[in-house]
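Record type: ASSEMBLY
Status: queued
Input:
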Amino acid sequence: MIKFLLMVNKQGQTRLSKYYEQVDIEKRPSLETDVVKRCLSRKKEECSFVEYKDFRLVYRQYAALFIVVGISDTENELSIYELVHNFVEVLDKYFSRVVSSIMFNLDKVHIIIDEIIQNGHIVETNKNRILAPLLALDKMAEAH
Amino acid sequence: MSDVVEKTLSALPSLLSLDSQAGAGKLSPSSKLGNLIKGITELTSKHEEEKLIKKELESIKEQVASPNTTMRQMKEIMVRAIYCEMLGYQASFSYIHAIKLAQQGSVLEKRVGYLAVSLFLNETDEFLLLLVNTVLKDLQSTNLIEVCMALTVVSQMFPKDMIPAILPVVEEKLTHPKEIIRRKAVLALYKFYLIAPNQVQHIHSKFRKALCDKDPGVMTASLHIYLQLIKENPESYKDLTGSMVTILRQVVGGKLPLDFNYHSVPAPWLQIQLLRILAYLGKEDQGTSEMMYDVLEESLRRAEMNHNITYAILFECVKTIYTVHPKSQLLEKAAECIGNFVLSPKINLKYLGLKALTYVVQQDANLALPHQMTIIECLDHSDVIIKRETLELLFRITNAQNVTVIVEKMLEFLRLTCDDYSTIDLVGKVAELTMNSVFSLGGDVMQPDIPNNFLRLLAEGVDNVEDRQLRLFAVDSYVSLLQGVTAKLPQRFLQVISWVLGEYSYLREEESDPGSVMRLLARLLDQRHTSTETRSWVLGAMTKLCSSPVSVALARDVCERYLSSLYSGSLNTVLRQKAQELMILSQDTKLRARVLPAEGRLESLEVDSSLSFLDGYVSEALAAGAAPYKSPHQRQEDLVQEKALSLEPYGLSLPVSLSSCSITDRLTDRRSPTLLSMSSGLSGNSTELSHQEGSTTLKLEGVKRVWGKDGYLAQQQSAGETPTPLVELPNPLLSPQSPPSQTQKPSSGLEPDQEKRQLASSLFVGLGSHNSVCLVRLPSTVWLFIKHCQSANQSHVFKALFKRFYINSCQSISCISGSPLKEVKGHSVSVCLHTVVMKRASVQVELAGLLSYQRPLGQPQAAQFSLSLSLKHFLRPLTVSTGDYGKMWLSFSHDLKQNLRLVTTEHQEPLTATLDALKGKLHLHVVDIIGSEGIVACRLLQGPGQGQPCLLHCRVNADSLAVWLRSPVPELPDSLLYHCQKALTET
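Status: finished
Output:
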C-alpha cells in the first residue's frame, strides 16, 4: 500500500505531494522535510529503500529531482522503485511533446498520478492508457 | 541500475531539465503560477516563504471573490491554491470555488475542479455533499471524458451515505462499451466496497463478470476487489484459483497486448498482484496449492531477464511459494533464487534478498545456512538499512545457542543508531529475545552481561520521550509477566524484572492502583521457588517503590512477616538487613520523604566509592583496638606466612562469585588422584576448598555480595545504573565450553569475552608432563606445578613450603607479572602463577628458573628447572571480521608465501580439513572460507594487551595449499609457517 508520493528538488523543496492516507495539512511540511532529509543524506552506493517510522521509503533520483514514495511494510519495494520509473517515463512521453515542465503543470502531473495510483494501489501501468484521459482533455481544450 | 534503465535515463533530456531554473520563465505557460514557483525556489528562509504565500493567498482570495473571474482564470487560480496548500498553508476559502469549478467549468476546467476537491478535502468533509449532484450529472453525461472524470473522483473519495444515489448509474457502467469506463466503474465499486462493503454485496456476480472481461485493464481492476475479498475470506473464493492461475499463465506467457509490457516484461505489476492473490488462496491448503505449482514454477523460470522489475516479480513469487502448501522441488528453486538476490552486488537486490530470507526462514531456519557468510558481511555493512534488515533476519533465526551473540549484535546496533523508531522496535525485540532466551535456556546458562546490557540500555540515555516509552514498555510487559505464572521464570530474569519495576514503575502513572506492582513483588517473595538472591532484589525494588500509602502498608506487612518467626532463623543477613531497612522506611514518614523525594527520581546520585563517610566510624573502631582492614590479597599473603594459623580455606582469594553460586557441580573424589591434583591447581579451584570446609565455615551461599576484594562495591542501583554483574560460576570440570571464570587473571589486558574464547580453544593444550614439573598453558599465564612426590607412603613430607620462585628473563621471553606461591592443601602441590610472553617471535624458546623451598625440618633447598616452549604456546586466535581482516591485510608489511600440504579426510573438503587441523593445533581463528580460499588470523602474545596479529591467506592450488602470511612483526610469519608445516605433517 502506497502512503504518499513526493516530488522534491535538490534543495528539499516540495514540488508535488499526494497523500493516500490522511495527514493534516499543517503536519505535512515537517513530515516532508524529515522524509527528504533521510533520502538526500543517503549515499549513492546505499540502497534506495529507507525505513521510516512504521513504514518504508522508496526513493529515486533524476538529476535534480527526487521522487520519494512512502509505502507500507507489506509492499514490494523494488516494484515501487520501478513504478516510479514507469511514472517518469510517462511524464517524459507526455511533456516532451508539449515542451513544458512538470513544475508549471502541477495539475496535469496530478491527473497522470490519479490514473496510476488510487487509494494507495497501483491501478494502471500501461503508458498509453495512463495518458489517454489527459490527451483527450487536451484535445477538447484545443477545440474550445 | 541496469543497463536498460541507464539507457532510458539518458533518453530523458526533457525531464532532466525540468527543474532547472533556466527554463523556468520561458516554459511557463501561466505566468502567475510560474512566478509563484520561481519566487518560492529563490527563497532562502521559511519566514520569507510565509510572507510570500500570505501575499499570494490574499491575491487568490481577492480574485476568487471577484464576479469577473472567468472559469478559465479560476482553473489557474485553483492550481495556485493547490500549490499553497501543498506547502502547508490553508486555503480553505477556495474549497467552495473548487466545487464550483467542477460544477460549472468546461472539461479541462472541470477536471481541475475535481482535482482540487480531491486534494483539498478529506473523505469525511461535508463539502463533499455539494459535489454529489455534479458527480451524478457527469456520470450521466454523453461526454465520455466527463463520465471518466466523475468515476475517477468517485473512486478517490465519496460520501459514504450518498453511495445509493449514484450506485445504479455506476453499476450500469459495468457494461459500457468503452473499456476505460468499465474499468473506472470497477474501481469506483472497489472504493464503495472499501468504505461501505454492505452497499455492494449484491453485485458480487458483476465483479466476476469484470474478472472475465475481455479487456485486460478491466480484469486487472477487478483484481483489487478480489485481493481484498480473498484476504478477508479465502475460503469463499477457492473456486477462483483456476481462473487466477489461467490469467497468470497467460500474462507470463506474453498473451497481453504489447503496450502492457514494461521493459519487455509483460504487465509486471499485474503478475505481482496475481501472485499475492495466489498466496492467500494457497495458504494452508494443499489442494489449492497443487493447482498453482506449475504456474509458480513457470513464473520463476520466465523471470530470468536481468532487470529490477523481474527481480520484483521473483521476490513476490518466492514469497508465494513459501506461503502456500510446500512443494520441496519448488522450495528448492525458490531458495536458489534467493541466493541470487543475496549474492548480488547490487545493493537494492541484496536488500530484497535479506527481506526474502527473513520471510522464508520463518518456515525453515536452515535456509539461512548457505548464506551465513553474506549475512555476517551484511551485519558489518556500511549501509544502516542493510544492517538493520540483517538484524531483522537474525531475530527470526534466534535459538538457544545463538541468542547471546544476536542480542549482543542488536545492542551494538542500538548504541550506534539514533533513529527513535527503530530503537524502540529493536529494543522490543531485544526484550523479547532476552525473555525467550531466558525461558529456553532456563536462565542459568545465560551470559550475565545480557541482562546487564539490557538494563544499562534502559537506564542510559537522556530522559526523552522515546526512552520513557521504552521503559514503560519494559515495565508493562514485565507487569503482565508477573501477573501470570512466575514459577518457571528463571531467577536472573526475576532479578531484572525487579530492578526495572523498582526503577521505572512510576512511569505507569496513576492508571493503575499504586499498590499493584508492590503486590506483585510481594507475591514473588511469598513463593517458595524464589531464591534468596532474587528476594534481595525484590526487597530492593520494594524499597524504591515505597512511596504511596498503599505501598507503605504493603511493605510494612511484608516486612513484619519477613522479620517474624518464619524467617528469623534465616542466616541470610543481607536479606534481613534489607527487610529491616524497608521496615524502618515504611514506619518513618520523614525519612521516606528524604530518601525517596517525589521529584528526585531522575537525578543520579553521587556515590562515594571511597566510603569517606565511614571514616569516623573506622577511626573510632581502630581507637577501640580493632584490627586495621586488610585487603583479601594482603590477608592471603598473611596466611601463607603465618602457617601457624591453619585457615586454609581462606588461603585463596575467594572468587567474587562464590556467594551467588550453588555448590552442586564440583569436583568430587571420584576422580583419579593425579588428575585431581592437576585440575585443582589449574584453576585455583577455590570452590573445592569451600566445599571441603563447607560444614565449618560461614555459609556464603545466597548472600548478596556487597563487599568486594577492594572494599565496598558501589551499589549502583541507587545511581540509576546497572546492578553489579552476577558472575556465574561455571562447571569446574573445565570443559572447553565453560571456562573457569573464577581463575585469577594476573594480566588484565584481555577482555573477558575474548579470554573465554581463547580459553575454550586453548585450555588443556600443552599440558605436558614433566616428571616433577609440569607446565600448563592458560591465556598469557604459565602455571607451574611442582609435585613433591609421587609415592603414597611419603605423604607426610608434603608439608614443604616454597620460599621463592622466579623465572629468569632472557632475550626471547619475558615475565611480566607473577603471583605469590600458594599451597593447595592436601594435594601435595603448590602453585605459582607467572605470566610469560614472547618478546621476539621465534620457533622455540627456553624458559629457565630457580625454585627454592624448605621442608619443615630440613635445610632450604633450591632447584633449577628449564622448559622448552614453542611459538604455539604464545599463539592465540584472533577474532576479526572479514572487513577488518581486509584492512589489516593491506597495512602489514612483513609477508611470506609458501605451499603447504593439504590434509585429506573422508568427511571434509580438503581446505576445511586443513584449516581445521591448523586451528586445532595452533589455535588459529578461521575468519572465513569462500570457495577455494580461506582466511585465518591469530595473534602472538608479546607483552601486556592483545598481542601482535598474523594473518594467513590460504588458497587451494591443485594438491597443495598456497599460504600467504602477513604480519607487522618481522619474524612472525617465518616462525608461524614452520609450525604450520609441522602441524600438517603430523596430521
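Annotation: The first strand of chain A starts at residue 2 and ends at 9.
Annotation: Chain A touches chain B through 76 residues (CB under 8 Å).
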